[in-house]
Design brief:
single chain, 206 residues, alpha/beta, Rossmann fold, five-stranded parallel beta sheet, four-stranded antiparallel beta sheet, binds adenosine-5'-triphosphate
């Protein structure tokens, strides 16, 4: 999936997060969205998957050279982020079965396979609200990376992961991103953005 921002900007009352952004995110490219806390990484990423609209300018998504509207684009975008809520009252397996009803996993993987990939075998029948924050994070990352989406957006992907978890994430990303587009919002570029050869600092556009 390709994204083209033209003269794009996003404001909140009394605050310009970014403006005058001209940016082409080519299909299959890997971008790290860098910056300190509050610099606008999440705001930018939310515009990419349609959770926030632009205040000015335009954003066009295209798939295989064909422009698609935001609704069709959203069906081809998967994201994992601190503000992406899991359904806490379901068990891990129940949640994955529900998720599969909305969107099939890639390579014909099933809920039980995802449990294994997320290293949650022992917790499969536990309610999500009783998982540790690192376990929830592994589940979110697997949901995104084992989707069939053409654009993967990961906001702070290693938050709540311990050192072993960070290594697990790096291996997962390396194996599963394939030729898909990738946007990562990160304070820890070495751990999280290691696959990204393109960088955006939102503060360069304030
Ligand atoms: N819905 C909102 N309404 C008003 N202001 C907002 C809203 N969302 C974000 N902001 C403001 O926009 C700025 C950028 O926030 P954002 O969450 O994008 O930063 P970030 O770089 O992702 O930060 P962090 O690394 O702490 O997650 C901040 O000043 C924040 O307070």
């Amino acid at each position: 999936m390709k994204l083209e921002y033209r003269k794009a900007g996003r404001r909140f009352p009394g605050q310009i997060v970014f403006q005058n952004l001209d940016l082409e995110i080519e299909a299959g490219s890997h971008w790290a969205i860098l910056g300190a806390n509050g610099s606008g990484k999440s705001t930018f990423l939310k515009t990419a998957f349609g959770a926030l609209s632009l205040s000015e300018g335009s954003l066009q998504h295209s798939i295989d050279g064909q422009t698609v509207d935001m609704q069709s684009a959203a069906l081809n975008i998967a994201y994992a982020a601190p503000y992406f809520e899991l359904i806490e009252e379901l068990t891990v397996l129940e949640f994955l079965k529900t998720a599969q009803g909305f969107r099939t996993f890639k390579n014909q993987l099933g809920p039980q396979d995802i449990v294994q990939k997320a290293m949650l075998e022992e917790a499969a029948k536990r309610k999500i609200r009783f998982l540790s924050s690192g376990m929830k994070q592994r589940l979110k990352l697997c949901l995104a990376l084992f989707s069939e989406a053409k654009l993967i957006i990961l906001d702070e992907p290693t938050s709540n992961l311990d050192r072993a978890g960070v290594q697990w994430f790096r291996d997962l990303l390396e194996n599963e991103i394939e030729d898909r587009s990738l946007l990562i919002g990160t304070n820890y570029n070495e751990d999280e953005g290691f696959l990204c050869d393109q960088h955006l600092r939102v503060t360069d556009y304030q």
